[in-house]
Description:
Blueprint lengths: L8 E4 L3 H11 L2 E9 L1 H7 L5 E8 L6 E9 L20 E4 L3 H9 L4 E2 L4 E3 L3 E7 L5 E7 L2
Parallel strand pairs: 1-4, 5-9
Antiparallel strand pairs: 2-3, 3-4, 6-8, 7-8, 8-9
Amino acid sequence: MTIQRMDNVAIVVDDLDAAVAFFTELGMELEGKAQIEGLFADHTVGLEGVRSDIAMMRTPDGHSKLELTKYHTPAASAAEPENPPPNTLGLHRVMFAVDDIDDTIARLRTHGAELLGEVAQYESIFRLCYLRGPAGIIVGLAEKIG
C-alpha cells in the first residue's frame, strides 16, 4: 500500500490574519477557515482542551496546501531559539517556485519578511533565496532562469 498524496503542511502561528495576508501576498488562495475544538481534536493532537482557528491555504495549481493554525487553548509554546537557523533539526523550510523573485521579495517585505542571506544564483538554472516569514518560519523562493 502506498500513500495517495501529501495533503498539507501545518504551521502554528501567533497571528492568523497576518499569516493569511502573507501567504495571500505570495500567491496562495484562502480555501477556508474553521474553528477546531472537541474530543476529536484533543485525541488527534494529543492535547487536552484544544480550541484553535485554522486557515487552509492552497497553491494556485491546487496541488499543495498549508494549514495555518492559531491555538487559543492550550496556548502555543514558543520555539527555542525564537528564530532558529536553517540548519536546526526538524522542519527546515517551505519552498515555493515563483515567476519573479525580486517582485515577490518586495511584496513580502511589506508583510515583515526579511532575507536570511541574499538572492543567489545556482548555475544558469535558478535564482534562490531564503526569507523569514510568519512565526519565524523559513520560506524559500526559487525562480527558474530562462
